[in-house]
């Protein structure tokens, strides 16, 4: 593909766009992180406008690939996986990968709702009491439930088949995000999930990913993204 992919996502945070960035970085295909460029925000907003696009996205991330405008993280990854050998060729394999990615999306949503349990229109400080209650359940019940599931899935070394897929990249990002937001919880839980941690380390060591993680293209975790570290939520 001679024309770079255009990734449309909010500047300054990893968020859901990071799952797409990891796939693009692993494949080495050229792409532009549009909203991080001068004048990029109007292009991002245009992708959400039904007057400008026949199939607008509800929210970022959005991938512009030639004439295609693709929204939703799992949908974008399903497309990139098929195009760049990050997913199985068989229909059953592609569906399995998409199923796992949607499950990753479920826990990512729950991680976000820990610090915004009432409304995304309120500041964290406006819902701290509710956030503490939500965090306790997330730490004690939900994180282990999801990690138990994924630990079994990656028993063979990878999530899908015998080679790397976009799901593995997403599981790496999930572990990274949970470590940032809940370092004490993850330090306690990780010994129970050797397969997942081995996969995380294997992804981190891949040449393109390792280079990306050390580059300025990798936005640091911060308290405007999905994974946020509030010490009072990690007791």
From TrEMBL:
Gene3D superfamilies: 1.20.1050.10, Glutaredoxin. InterPro entries: Glutathione-S-Trfase_C-like, Glutathione-S-Trfase_C_sf, Glutathione_S-Trfase, Glutathione_S-Trfase_N, GST_C, GST_superfamily, Thioredoxin-like_sf. It comes from Duganella rivi. GO terms for molecular function: glutathione transferase activity. PANTHER family: GLUTATHIONE S-TRANSFERASE. GO terms for biological process: glutathione metabolic process. Residues 90-226 form the GST C-terminal domain. This is Glutathione S-transferase. Residues 4-88 form the GST N-terminal domain.
């Amino acid at each position: 593909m001679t024309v770079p992919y255009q990734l449309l996502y909010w500047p300054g945070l990893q968020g859901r766009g990071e799952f797409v960035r990891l796939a693009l970085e692993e494949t080495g295909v050229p792409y532009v992180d549009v909203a991080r460029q001068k004048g990029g925000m109007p292009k991002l907003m245009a992708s959400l406008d039904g007057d400008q696009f026949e199939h607008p996205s509800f929210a970022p991330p959005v991938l512009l690939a030639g004439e295609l405008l693709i929204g939703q993280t799992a949908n974008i990854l399903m497309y990139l996986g098929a195009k760049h050998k990050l997913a199985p060729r068989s229909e059953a394999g592609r569906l399995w990968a998409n199923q796992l990615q949607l499950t990753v999306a479920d826990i990512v949503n729950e991680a976000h709702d820990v610090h915004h349990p009432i409304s995304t229109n309120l500041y964290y400080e406006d819902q701290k009491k509710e956030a503490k209650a939500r965090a306790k359940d997330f730490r004690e019940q939900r994180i282990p439930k999801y990690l138990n599931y994924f630990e079994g899935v990656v028993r063979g070394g990878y999530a899908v088949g015998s080679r790397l897929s976009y799901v593995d990249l997403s599981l790496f990002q999930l572990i990274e995000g949970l470590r940032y937001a809940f370092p004490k919880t993850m330090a306690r839980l990780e010994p129970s999930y050797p397969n997942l941690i081995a996969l995380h380390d294997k992804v981190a060591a891949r040449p393109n990913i390792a280079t990306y993680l050390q580059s300025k293209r990798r936005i640091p975790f911060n308290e405007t993204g999905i994974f946020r570290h509030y010490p009072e939520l990690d007791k």
